[in-house]
Each structure stands twice: as structure tokens, then as C-alpha cells.
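Quick one, T. Sequence first:
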Amino acid sequence: MNRKTLVLPAVVGLLAPVLVACGGSDSGSDSDAIVVGTTDGFIASKDAPAPVDPAYAYDVGTWNILRQTVQTLMVQPRGDGEPVPEAAESCSFSDAGNERYSCELRKDLKFSNGDPVTAEDVKYSIDRARAIKADSGVFALLSTIDTVETKGDREVIFHLNTADATFPYKLSTPVAGIVNPDDYDKGKLRDGFDIDGSGPYTLDAQEEDGKLTKAVFTKNPHYKGALEVKNDKVELRSFADADAMGDALEKGDIDLMTRTMNPQQIQELSTGSNSDIDLVDMPGLEIRYLAFNTDDPSVKSKAVRQAMAQLVNRSELVTEVYGSQAEPLYSLVPASITGHTNAFFNAYGDPNVSKARDTLTAADITTPVKLTLYYTTDHYGAATKDEFDVLKKQLNDSGLFDVTTKGVPWETFRPAEKEGEYEVYGMGWFPDFPDADNYLAPFLDADNFLGSPYANNEIRNTLIPQSRREADRIAAVESLSDIQDLVAKDVPVLPLWQGKQYIAARDGVTGAAYALNSSSTLQLWELGRGVSG
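C-alpha cells:
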């Protein structure tokens, strides 16, 4: 009997992280906990001493820790769609121009230690993140806030500096998480892995040598919100790689595994013979792309970047490395998101060496152009090396480039990228919220999270603000399309592919189909034990 593969229907929808292996044994686990495996890793280092502070965290892994523990005013609903009130009882724009947003907190809201949550705590938390301006760039999600006002203990009013129809989504992200002022200093980040919030769980973070080895989430008895918590305890356990995680699932040491499985493993799970394991296949909004330091002499000329865009064969890349688990992407905005266009295909068509050569010749670029493509060895899965080997071959086979590749651990890779040490480097993105704005502004606006020197005034000053004025996102399509066309013309980034996402769970675990939403938010509260089929 084949393993059961559950395929979820398409739905509309960050940067991914690195938990470090603690092995495949269940020793030390709470017997009543649902045990979830991941290859994500969390490291408190000199460069990133506060990985789970809401004012700093900006990757899918740390956000998945925070979403279990720190409450936000809004939350994305179970089946995706527009955000709904969470810590808030109600929220809405209170003006016609989408520049004033008001929320009223739920009655008797409490932090996990029993302290009341007030409107002043919300203001403190959001003003703190805006003031600290952590170098992760996450504060930019709050850039349209001018001031935060409170009225009484329960009403919070956000006065925006420009119209922003996406603001409710931004209030659903962990940077807008409500923290207790007694535990979080206003002017500095909170180092380590301690978290105090009002979310559905409390966290027992077990660490060793600056690495989180186990995260135990226990149901918060004081929690009040929109989420239905279907278990009392979940343990998130980290593995060095997908193979070790898969072995633990096979042996029953863990109940469920999530990102990141490798392509071969997913194929085996979908066609294997273990009827005790279900593979859940669902649409995803993860994208991968190359980013350029446009100030670096090797790629400062737009012609070099355009020639690369002309040469990269996305279909070949996907077929050779990821198979049916990904599809070519010709824009920063993935398919299924309102506003998506195939801007790069429209600009460059199929891969063409002759056109790429003409582009370089017209700009007086001497060939072959020497470049190093940097990628992270331990952040996006084992297939990343294969992906960059294919890219290297495609570029070098043209005779126009002399490319080498270099793999770097994420702990070193991310700080070096932000300091501008790499001319070309591979990155991934999981959306903060499922809107085209979140695939464009984080890369192109001021204070972008890449620290990219690329600046297009039309995009920043006209098109992004214009698109945010439209509460009906269909009405924003023209502005969003213009942004994508300019990106294809200037090539500050080069989109490659978008991927699916998967969960594998043992029989007896319920809720696995809802444990991830399309934005790769881990929803541990959906998991339970029962009869599955």
C-alpha cells in the first residue's frame, strides 16, 4: 500500500532560517507532546544575539517561534484570506483614505504571567520596534506608521504617513507582536531565546552553546484570541539535515516533519510503501532568486545583469534539481498572487546566447565576465548546491561568463551579504503576508532588508505609494505591473523559481493539512491526536 499523499487546493498566499541538530532520539521528550521535526536552526551569535526578539526577527523560522508565543492585533485566518482580529476584538480603517486605522483590544487580555495587556503595551511594542531599527530590516514593515495613539486601556489608533491598504496584514506579522514592557527594554534588543507574550503557547527554550536545541510549547492558560488550540503541548525538535529528520519520522521518534525536506525525500514519500505516513502537498509562496550588489564593479553595469537574465534557463534548472516540486518564476511576485506578471519572460523571452552577447558588446563589456555566485550551505536545503552548479554551468557554457560558486554557512552568509561583500548571491523569500506589495517593497523600498544599494525613484516615490492606496488590490495591478517591468529592465534581482511546501505526518496526528498556511506560517495549534486516515 502506498503512502497517502494529500494534495490541498490552491490558495493565495521570508527569508528562511537555519534549529541545529539534536539528533533523532526522543530521549527527554514530554510523553504527551506532539513532536515536530524541522531542519530550521536558531543561533544566538555575536552578529545576531537576539534572534527571537520581535523587533529583530525576520526569517520564517524565528517568526514561526514567535507566532506561537507573541500575540498580534490581527492574524491570517486558517484558510488564508484577509487578516482577522486576534488580540483585537475589532480593527478597521476609520477614514476614507486608508490613513487612520483603529483597533479595540479584547476584554481581559493577559500576558502569560497574568499581567493585563493594555493599549499602552501595544503602543510600546510597536514604537519600540520602530525606534530600535534593527539591522535585520524588519522595522520597515512599520514604515507607514506616523504615530500611535491610545484611548483608554483598549483602543489603539494608528495614524499613517501615507495610505496603506496592506496595513492590516502588517499588523499580523511578528514585528507588530505585543510584548510586556517589564521584559523588553525600550531601547535595546532582548538577547537569547526567552519570550514573554500573550500568544497561544508559552515557550521553554532549551539551548546549548548559543543554539536552540529544543523548543517546547505549552498551552497558555491565559490566552484569549481567535485561535482554537487543539493540543496542550508541542515540541519542536531540530535536525542537521532532512535525512536524519526523515529517519526519526520513520522510527516514530517524531510525529510530523516540516521544512525542509529534500527533493529526493519528497519523491520517495509520495511513492513509498509506508502506509503509516501521510505526505501533505500544498501550494506555496516561497520564491528563490539571485540578488546583486549593484555597487560592486563586476555587476555595476546593468548590461551584465541583463545578460545573466538573458541566459538563465529556469525550466532546465527546475527540471534538473527540483522536478515537480517547483516551477519557473519570471517575476518577484509569484503566480496566484494578484498583480503577478511574467515580466522577465516578456523582457527576455527564452534563453539566448546571441542576445546576451549583443547586450554585453553594446555596453563595451569584456568577456568572459568573472563572477562568484555565493549561496548558503545550511539554510535553504541540500539542493541549493545542485541549483548553483546548474546556474554556473548555464552561464559558463555561454562563453560569456567565467563563474565560480562558493557555499557559506548562514551564520556567516547573512551578515556578509548585508555588508555588501558578495557581488551576486542566492536568497529565498517567504512572504510576510500574501500580497504583491510584500514581494516588491522589501527588495526595492528604502531600508530594504537586503541592504541593496539599488534605488529607483519612480518605484519608491510613485509606484509603491500608488499601489498601497488601493484597498481593492485588483485596482493596484497597473502600478504593481509597472514595478515588475522596471525590475526586469534594471535587474537588481533575478527571480528563479517558486516552490510547493510539504508536511509529512504519522497516522494518529490530526490537523497536519492546516499546520502550514500558504505563507509558510507554522500553525502548531492546529495539531492534535486522533484517528487519521
